[in-house]
Specification:
Layout lengths: L27 H10 L6 E3 L9 E3 L8 H14 L4 E4 L9 H14 L3 E4 L3 E9 L3 H9 L5 H5 L5 E4 L2 H4 L12
Parallel strand pairs: 1-2, 4-6
Antiparallel strand pairs: 3-5, 4-5
Helix pairs in contact: 2-4
GO molecular function: GTP binding; nucleotidyltransferase activity
Keywords: GTP-binding, Molybdenum cofactor biosynthesis, Nucleotide-binding
Protein name: Molybdopterin-guanine dinucleotide biosynthesis protein MobA
Length: 179
């Protein structure tokens, strides 16, 4: 899309998510942060955000390294603040539900191993990662291996089945019109 998505308006939800969804017209930022706050989680924002907010901002330690660097920076922030893990959700996935996040958290709580969403494919940016993975992420980035999708396949993780709708992201302007 070529722009910061945080301030974009949230599209109408598909029918399957409408019962849990009352955010049409709010920004993608508001939808994402309120969804996390409902889970009684500490919220921090990773990367650039054009929306004014009072949350902690996590800057990537190395610029232009993609989502893997964002996950690493988030885990380092979590560890520095005495959290054992980090729940990651992208700003541009407005149809994740409270139930989806509760399921991710419950799965994490069972084994305290990475809990990664799976719709029709692995969704590595909808996941809970423990801080114990920091060193492995550092090594991957140092070796110029920046694909979260490839990296996640090399570690033990728990799959959390979510719908394609819940995991659908906003990539193009026309995605804002689809419900």
């Amino acid at each position: 899309m070529g722009q910061d998505k945080a301030a974009l308006p949230c599209p109408a939800p598909p029918e399957s998510n409408a019962a849990e969804y009352h955010a049409v017209g709010n920004s993608l930022f508001d939808v994402a942060t309120k969804r996390l706050e409902k889970q009684s989680l500490s919220v921090a924002i990773s990367g650039h955000c054009s929306v004014e907010h009072s949350f902690s901002l996590i800057e990537d330690q190395v610029a232009d390294q993609g989502p893997m660097q964002g996950v690493l920076s988030s885990l380092e922030f979590a560890k520095a603040n005495d959290f054992q893990a980090c729940l990651c959700t992208p700003i541009d996935v407005p149809f994740l539900t409270d139930r989806d996040l509760s399921l991710l958290i419950a799965t994490w709580n069972q084994k305290q191993e990475p809990a990664v969403a799976f719709s029709d494919r692995i969704e590595p940016l909808i996941a809970i990662y423990p801080t114990s993975l920091i060193e492995g992420l550092r090594v991957s980035l140092a070796n110029d291996q920046r694909s979260l999708m490839k990296w996640i396949k090399d570690i033990p993780f728990q799959s959390v089945a979510l719908t394609k709708t819940s995991c659908r992201n906003i990539n193009r302007p026309e995605d804002l019109k689809l419900g």
